[in-house]
Write a structure and sequence with these properties.
By secondary structure, the chain is of the alpha+beta class. Strands 1-4-3-2 form a four-stranded mixed β-sheet. α6 packs across α8. The longest helix has 22 residues.
Length: 192
C-alpha cells in the first residue's frame, strides 16, 4: 500500500531530537549502491544493514511497500527564537515587504537566498505571493517566472505532468512563514 503524503519536521537541531527516539535511518539506492538518506527516518522496524544501520530498502520502494518515512530537517531560523511567545510575536508581525527588494537582505533568507533574480521580478507583498515564489524556484514551476501574479496563481499549485520536482502548497506556505519569521528576526536585530 503506497502512502501518498510527505511529513517534514523542521527543528533547530535534528540530532538532539534523534538521540531521544528509536529510529532507523532511511536509505537511497543509486546505481545499485545504498547510502544513508540525509533527513529521512522510520519509526517502524524496517529491515536495516547490520553495520551501517540504515534501511535495506530504498526510500521510494519502502513508500510503495507501506513504510512511513519522516524527514527531520535542521532549520537554523529557530536558533534565535527565545520562547513560544517570541515566536508568536514574530509570526504575527506584518513583515516589511519592501525588504524583499534588497538583495543583501534576500541573500540572508533561507530557500530564497540564491534566487534574488526571481524575487526581484516578483517582489512579494503577501504570504501568498511569497509561497508562490518558493514554488517557482523549483524546476516544475520555473516556467512561471516572469509571468503576472494572476497567471502564476492559476498554475502554481497544479501538479506537473512530467514528474518534475515541485513544491506542494503546504510546504510553500510553511517555508514562507518561516522566512517571515527570519525576516522579522533580522529587523529585530537591526533595532537592538
Amino acid at each position: 500500500m503506497k502512502i501518498d503524503f510527505d511529513v517534514d519536521i523542521d527543528m533547530a537541531n535534528r540530532d538532539d531530537f534523534l538521540k531521544l527516539v528509536n529510529v532507523i535511518p532511511a536509505s537511497i539506492e543509486k546505481d545499485g549502491k545504498f547510502s544513508k538518506h540525509n533527513t529521512g527516518v522510520y519509526f517502524q522496524n524496517i529491515s536495516k544493514f547490520p553495520l551501517e544501520g540504515y534501511s535495506t530498502i530504498d526510500h521510494k520502494q519502502a513508500e510503495q511497500e507501506g513504510w512511513f518515512k519522516v524527514d527531520f530537517l535542521n532549520n537554523h531560523v529557530y536558533k534565535d527564537i527565545i520562547d513560544e511567545q517570541h515566536l508568536d510575536k514574530l509570526v504575527n508581525t506584518e513583515p516589511m515587504w519592501d525588504l524583499f527588494e534588497h538583495e543583501e537582505i534576500v541573500n540572508q533568507l533561507f530557500h530564497i537566498g540564491n534566487h534574488f533574480d526571481i524575487v526581484k521580478q516578483h517582489p512579494p507583498k503577501s504570504i501568498d505571493q511569497l509561497a508562490m515564489i518558493l514554488a517557482m524556484i523549483r524546476p516544475g514551476k520555473r516556467h512561471l517566472v516572469g509571468k503576472a501574479w494572476k497567471d502564476i496563481e492559476l498554475d502554481v499549485w497544479v501538479k506537473p505532468n512530467d514528474n518534475s520536482y515541485f513544491f506542494k502548497k503546504s510546504h510553500s506556505y510553511g517555508y514562507a512563514l518561516a522566512i517571515i519569521v527570519q525576516l522579522n528576526l533580522l529587523v529585530e536585530s537591526f533595532n537592538r
